[in-house]
Amino acid sequence: MGLAVAAYGISFGALSVASGLDIWQTCFLSLIMFSGGSQFAVIGILASGGAAAGGAAIASGALLGTRNALYALRVAPFIGGPWPKKVLAAHWTIDETTAVSTAQKTVAGQRAGFWWTGVIIYVGWNLTTLLGALIGDLLGDVSQYGLDAAAAAAFLGLLWPRLKQLQPVVVAIGAAVVAAVLIPFVPAGIPVLAAAVVAVVVGLTNWLGPRREAEL
Amino acid sequence: MTIWQTIILASIAVLALKLLGYLVPPALVEKPTPARVANLLTVALLAALIVVQTVGGGQGIVLDARVPALVVAAGLFALRVPFIVVVGAAALVAALIRLWT
Questions:
Q1: Were both Cys, which of A23, A156, B27, B81 would link to A133 (CB 3.0–4.6 Å)?
Q2: Residue B81 structural domain
Q3: Chain B interface mutation, best of A15, A155, A215, highest count of B Cβ atoms under 10 Å
Q4: Are A96 and A75 in contact (CB under 8 A)?
Q5: Residue A52 half-sphere exposure, CB side, CA atoms within 13 Å?
Q6: Is residue B19 part of a domain?
Q7: A64 and B19 in contact (C-beta within 8 Å)?
């Protein structure tokens, strides 16, 4: 898992700089936002629409961050503690910390799993973001030649592990079609937001879904 | 909106969502629908971002070197090639096609 996070971090840093953000802005996202999918979405939309697409970038980042709120519901019962501790835990409530901590059997194990994963990923993610940003800065214009394709591949890499059941595959195809159809007619960033409707409709009706929800 | 304003507001939004999970009553955990919608939102947004990043261009759909690069990336992910290698390969494929055409 550490190697995978390092690879995401370097990719994020390099792509962010090539999307027009400076090194400080890139590191700010990893330090404060600290949620890979949302960070990639923000820089992806800023890359396609520039600063004018700021509103859509914020909305897309937030929508991709909604799952963290559900992770927080799952980990909150065993985190406990005073509010400063909860705020730090909230900041570190992401895919990896939730997956590791909820896989432990005892409360002590869950707590240890959460905090150790949190500190390792937080430090690693930020160091590799900085490294990637420095590499991207160094490459400069050279990275522009294949950058847009690299960003698409990065999104595909984030999506790939989520396509193990029929329902997410159908949602992915539906969302892709909605986005493609809208691209010529609406401003940058809007096709991505409109595609979210597909997830809401299928999610609420549980169309093509399993009878019982599988555990995360 | 400037880039700084965008990233600061987006970061606040993402942080606020994380905190929200510590504020609402845990009874919500039992309900599968919010969890399903959130998971599918991730899938839908990523799929749409792939499309925009692959065929989006200015004010319309543009088919260029990005399409074969994404096909190569999909093939490599299917073969379980590591993330950073695939991302690098996609960039390389697009760059080479642009160099030769």
A1: A23
A2: 64-101
A3: A155
A4: no
A5: 5
A6: no
A7: no
Number of domains in chain B: 1
Which of B5, B15, B43 to mutate to test binding with chain A, by most A CBs within 10 Å of its CB?
A: B43
pTM of the model: 0.87
ipTM: 0.91
For residue B75, being part of any structural domain is answered with yes
B11 Cβ under 8 Å from any chain A Cβ: yes
pLDDT digits (tens, 9 = 90+) for A171-200: 999 999 999 999 999 888 899 999 999 999
- Contact between B10 and B17 under an 8 Å Cβ cutoff? The reply is no
Widest Cα–Cα separation across chain A = 53
What's the per-residue H, E or C state across A77-93? HHHCCCHHHHHHHHHCC
> DSSP character for B80?
T
Rg of the Cα atoms in chain A: 18
Query: Residue B99 domain-assigned?
Result: yes
| Partners of residue B81 on adjacent β-strands | none
